[in-house]
Amino acid sequence: MGRKKEICRIDNLLEKKYALCVRLRDCMLSLYRSIENGETSEMGMIIGKRDSYMKRINKVDKQITENREFLSALFQNKESGDGFLIKTRINKTREILEEIADIQKKCLICGKSQVVQLKQEILSVRQQIHAFKSYIPHSPSHSRFVDTVR
């Protein structure tokens, strides 16, 4: 394959990866909002979309890494301006991936705080149940087998 065609093919793959990363970021923002607002009904669908985007990004990554040697040679040749467009796409994608990582951290922090809150609520309910049980009078126990004389 010619050099220009190869550069164009890699550029198309990087553009596709960038577009998928933008969609993934938007999906992660939706997930964060759902976690923050406690809207559990939509989380399953959002997580499914997130996983789908991640799988598609991994497929594109595999295609890009197949051209690792060509990319390495392209970046080593500093006289050629061919690598500039590709480096620009890589940097844009890196920025989006950093945003996604930050959103993921926020999701984890928010999720953990909600888990702690739920645990406290469960403990409070258990304590209330125990307190209510202490007010219930215990009925005197009768023996199960009573000897009767006939």
Give the key terms.
150 residues, rod-shaped, 4 helices, mainly alpha
Molecular structure report:
There is one protein chain. The chain has helices at residues 3-37, 43-65, 68-76, 82-135. It has 150 residues and is an all-alpha fold.
Short description:
With 150 residues, the protein is an all-alpha fold. It is built from 4 helices and no strands. The chain is rod-shaped and about 110 Å long.
What's the SSE blueprint?
Layout: H1 3-37, H2 43-65, H3 68-76, H4 82-135
Number of helices: 4
Q: Would you count the extended β strands for me?
A: 0
Average pLDDT metric: 84
The share of residues in extended strands comes to under 5%
Assembly annotation: single chain
Provide the succession of SSEs.
HHHH
Low-confidence stretches: none
Task: Calculate the terminal CA-CA distance, rounded to whole Å.
Answer: 107 Å
The rounded Rg comes to 30 Å
Query: In percent, how helical is the residue content?
Result: over 70%
